[in-house]
Design a protein that fits this description.
About 65% of the residues lie in helices and about 0% in strands. By secondary structure, it is mainly alpha-helical. Helix 1 crosses helix 14, helix 4 packs across helix 8 and helix 11 packs antiparallel against helix 14. The two termini are about 35 Å apart.
Length: about 290
């Protein structure tokens, strides 16, 4: 019977002391990561009295959980915080920003990876150097530009400045560079233009990185707080992070409503991750290339 690299037989891993210690560390790390989310979910289902009388930081303690789940907390938080407006705004902002980032990053990454032009190395180095500039430094210049364009309190102010990312260009460029040049050359011989090659050859082979870029950009757009507060004066286009911050201030001592609002805010990202996790792994495994 064959023995695998970890000492198991028949495809099974033998529970050696080292493996047991590793599993314990992984379980401990998972608990530390999940504990704040569990606490937030449990508190969001308590009454205002239970947030004081039934308080515990240990999930195995019955005091950690509500005696009777108060699902009405979510309805009350949704209505009082106007989450319907903020939720819609965040969805629109995220969708528009992701579409712009995928377009600009794919085009720029393809140019840096597969095209030859004067100054390519210098421009790529200059692009990467922008990653060292703190976002806070660019806050005032970006606001002045947005103000002069008349975009204050408009969708364009929340999307256009984020439709290009040096990090995403670098990420896609590194992957595009691994695609064999023979594929590009054969497509060129067949009469394909570079935009056609990008759409028909490069993009289908790069679903994994593109999914990663889209997911990371959605998280960034969904959690945006500082910039929306700067460029908006009314709730018309404010995203859900701003709405949650306002609601937490207004809810005061009603911890259960504050936690319910936080769960409403974070639930779409968690759901999106679980829905896209399999697509990430499958896309990456299908895009394996050989030179």
């Amino acid at each position: 019977m064959a023995t695998d690299a970890l000492g198991g037989a028949g495809g099974r891993t033998r529970l050696t002391p080292a493996v047991v210690v590793l599993l314990l560390f992984l379980i401990l790390g998972a608990l530390v990561a999940v504990l704040p989310l569990l606490y937030m979910a449990a508190t969001s289902l308590k009454t205002i009295a239970e947030t004081i009388t039934r308080s515990s930081a240990i999930p195995f303690d019955l005091q950690f959980w509500p005696e009777r789940p108060q699902w009405s907390n979510y309805r009350e938080a949704w209505e009082e915080a106007m989450f319907s407006l903020y939720f819609k705004n965040s969805v629109i902002i995220s969708a528009v920003t992701v579409a712009g980032v995928i377009t600009t990053s794919s085009l720029a990454a393809y140019a840096f990876a597969k095209l030859r032009f004067a100054g390519k190395g210098f421009l790529f180095t200059l692009l990467l150097s922008t990653l060292m500039v703190p976002e806070t430094v660019l806050l005032i210049p970006n606001f002045i530009m947005v103000s002069r364009l008349g975009w204050v309190d408009r969708l364009a102010a929340l999307t256009v400045p984020f439709m290009a990312s040096a990090f995403f260009i670098f990420l896609l460029r590194q992957f595009f560079a691994q695609i064999p040049n023979e594929l590009i050359e054969s497509s060129t011989i067949d009469g394909c233009t570079h935009p056609r090659i990008l759409l028909s050859v490069v993009v289908p082979l790069s679903k994994g990185p593109l999914f990663t870029v889209a997911f990371l950009d959605v998280i960034g757009s969904w959690n945006a707080l500082q910039w929306p507060l700067v460029v908006t004066n009314t709730p018309t286009w404010r995203p859900i992070a701003v709405g949650l911050t306002t609601f937490i201030t207004e809810a005061g001592p009603q911890t259960q409503l504050r936690m319910a609002g936080a769960m409403i805010s974070v639930a779409p990202i968690i759901l999106l991750y679980f829905l896209a996790q399999r697509q990430f792994t499958e896309a990456i495994s299908r895009s394996g290339l050989k030179g």
